[in-house]
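queue> pop job 88
queue> type: inverse folding (structure -> sequence)
queue> payload:
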């Protein structure tokens, strides 16, 4: 029975205490959904030497805050090609720096991997952050991918429809059973702010999930090769407005969906620091079981009652 630790958006909340816990744990591998950095994209480079101290196999897909500059992020939000292009060259440099800093950790994105115990891993589109225009677009698959200049140069993918084609080929090539790892989750898991990838920052609640990833999952089902689980983060628990509990795990058509982003990831509860991650267990029958874990000194609390472990 393989066990995997899923570490949600860190935004700089990961340190030597986490490394010591995971190195001593029973996990077969660690899956990072990305967003290591704070608002300063260079902050991430302080975290990489810490992640490199992990002795377990580790896989990391970059999020929209990893190697991307503030102008690019603004450009994505405003749909401004000029701003997106403006900051694109610094992303190439930062990605090279990130790649050379990661010797043990596998940097993923549009890539297939084999996890311990023969579980396949499809790493989906890197740097994804969703697109507010998708809700009103006639064909969302015709929209550009986030951070198109870099993704087009590095992966030859410019639109969500091209991304879907790339994801299909990764699914064709992977050996089941397998997981999908992404930064942002797929469209179709609900449009409420409290749903897994429902927008909680727009005036109107909307399903903010990615259409290329949703189409890829539908394709995988259509060829009788569904993933065991789709794992991502990006939309933080709790909701931005109102701090309501956000759904973080669900099962739909036999596929487990996990949003591992809880922020703050490290928070005080009953006088001590708790550190969040999700434990994913795959049973012999190919069934996934996900439970939220809160690590305190010398103890791991596991509960799916999110409200029982609220920051204080
Ligand atoms: Fe993100």
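queue> result:
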């Amino acid at each position: 029975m393989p066990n995997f630790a899923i570490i949600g958006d860190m935004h700089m909340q990961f340190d030597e205490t986490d490394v010591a816990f995971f190195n001593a744990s029973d996990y077969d591998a660690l899956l990072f959904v990305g967003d290591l950095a704070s608002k300063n994209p260079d902050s991430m480079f302080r975290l990489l030497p810490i992640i490199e101290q992990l002795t377990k196999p580790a896989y990391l897909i970059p999020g929209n805050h990893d190697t991307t500059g503030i102008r690019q992020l603004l450009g994505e939000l405003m749909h401004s090609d000029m701003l997106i292009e403006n900051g694109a060259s610094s992303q190439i440099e930062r990605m090279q720096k990130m790649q050379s800093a990661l010797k043990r950790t596998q940097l993923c994105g549009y890539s297939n991997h084999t996890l311990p115990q023969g579980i396949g891993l499809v790493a989906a589109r890197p740097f994804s952050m969703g697109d507010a225009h998708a809700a009103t677009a006639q064909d969302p698959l015709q929209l550009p991918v986030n951070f198109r200049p870099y993704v087009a140069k590095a992966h030859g993918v410019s639109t969500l429809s091209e991304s879907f084609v790339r994801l299909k080929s990764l699914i064709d090539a992977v050996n089941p059973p397998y997981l999908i790892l992404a930064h942002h989750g797929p469209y179709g898991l609900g449009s409420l702010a409290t749903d897994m990838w429902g927008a909680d920052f727009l005036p109107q609640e909307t399903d903010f999930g990615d259409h290329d990833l949703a189409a890829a999952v539908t394709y995988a089902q259509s060829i009788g090769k569904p993933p065991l689980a789709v794992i991502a983060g990006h939309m933080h628990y709790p909701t931005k407005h109102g701090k309501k509990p956000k759904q973080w795990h669900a099962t739909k058509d036999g596929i487990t969906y996990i949003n591992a982003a809880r922020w703050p990831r490290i928070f005080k509860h009953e006088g001590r620091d708790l550190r969040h991650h999700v434990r994913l267990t795959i049973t012999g029958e190919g069934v996934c079981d996900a439970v939220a874990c809160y690590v305190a000194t010398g103890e791991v609390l596991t509960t799916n009652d999110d409200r029982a472990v609220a920051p204080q």
